[in-house]
Please model this.
Amino acid sequence: MKIAIGADHGGYPLNERVLKELRAAGHEFEDFGTHDGSQPDDYPDYAQQVGEAVREGRAEIGIVICGSGVGACVAANKIRGVRAALVADTYSAHQSREHDDCNVLCLGARVVGSELAMEIVRAFVNARFTGEERHQRRLNKVLAIERREMSAP
Model:
């Protein structure tokens, strides 16, 4: 699977661990950085790069990591076509893909321990949208909201 990944300075150490996990599992990835956790930077920059890679089809899914995960999730969800989920447990990780067709995982490096984060990443990456009628119906409603909002003045 091709995965876009990015993290600000707050997410840097966990990002390095996630990259190692993805590499070991044989996934391809586009790493948007940061590559220096000692320099303060801004999570919206990474959320935008990851989200655009997913929207444009350069990656199937994305992962964005910042200190809490909240800012990255807010920023990623501003990008048309992105359905980002802030996840701190394995159930939500797979459910967000299976039921909600989320395509970007957001993690809080200062919130979730590294071992749990690896389990969350594996659950998210390995899950697939079920396409069940009830889930598709709900997703269609979400997409309708996005279309209306994108065309609003």
Remarks:
- The chain has a mean pLDDT of 95.
- The first helix runs from residue 12 to 24.
- Residues 2-151 form a domain with the Ribose 5-phosphate Isomerase B; Chain: A, fold (CATH 3.40.1400.10).
